């Protein structure tokens, strides 16, 4: 599924002119991917554990109250995530590049509209995949987030490019469409809040996930700053941009499989809530990491084949660059995912509200930073 990340990267490379029109547009891209990853990660974690425990049924109609409460909480959290991501992104660009305060309006509407469109496209697909995998005997903890994150990268990139195209190519009409999308999204969020005001499960999800959203809003904009630094180092090298979303997605999937399988084991009581119990999780860790190494190697080949016409040495260079990136990022994410699961469980919190949302946003940051470190070391 992570090969779909190359499609997302291809969209970025093809529409790179749009991404270059304002300095904050490239910074927003990983921020939007990560913010959407937080929402998707929370949904995947809660669905997979809920299906295993029997508190969510694998069907759209006639499901449990917990399921419908989760969907409505998702809408509210997506809107809040879009707002805080926009605010922090503006502060970053204002400090780093001195953008005009008027840019905040564009940033806010771009992020909110992209998030709204992605919720409409990605969430039903995620839910359907979780139900189908569970019914066919597959483990949602292993297959759900990797499928969702890769698909979401393509769809979110498509949504972001569409919003940019509306703004830069259709003038006043484009602005009206963007405003209408944001207005409807805001109404849905308000309706969900009012309807579930007294729902304890809804309130718990919002309370625990809100902290994650604020934290991630800070993290994801650091990712954008790292990507901006990479851009200054490499310029417009299509091969790097083509594989970039796929690298983030693969490391995020690695952390998600390690973390999600651990949270289910913790919920079922088959894993001790201590750091030393990581020894009983070696199979999931080594299997996931080995898969990520294979994928990083494949990405280097695909990027060169797709672009074509590069010097022969570049294939070896790109392979070395990506493998070093993998080692750095994978080691960090395995430890982070497992630690977040153990710590939140020990504190009496729901690990599914934290593990995948935190690790998915940190995965983007760690992968981007690891790529920057690898570029610096290799040259």
SSE order and pairing:
Blueprint: H1 4-14, H2 16-19, H3 23-53, H4 65-97, H5 103-135, H6 140-169, H7 171-195, H8 200-234, H9 238-268, H10 282-307, H11 312-346, H12 355-378
Describe this entry's structure for a reader:
With 379 residues, the chain is mainly alpha-helical. The protein has helices spanning 4-14, 16-19, 23-53, 65-97, 103-135, 140-169, 171-195, 200-234, 238-268, 282-307, 312-346, 355-378. The chain is 84% helix and 0% strand. Helix 4 packs across helix 7 and helix 9 (238-268) packs parallel to helix 11.
Order of helices and strands: HHHHHHHHHHHH
Number of helices: 12
Rg computed from alpha carbons, rounded to a whole number of angstroms? 20 Å
Structural domain tally: 1
Q: Identify low-pLDDT runs.
A: none
Fraction in beta strands: under 5%
Q: For the report, how would you describe the main beta sheet? A: none
Distance between the termini: 30 Å
Work out the helicity level: over 70%
What general form does the structure show?
globular
Q: Count all strands and give the number.
A: 0
Helix vs. strand class: mainly alpha
Q: What would the average pLDDT be, to the nearest integer?
A: 84
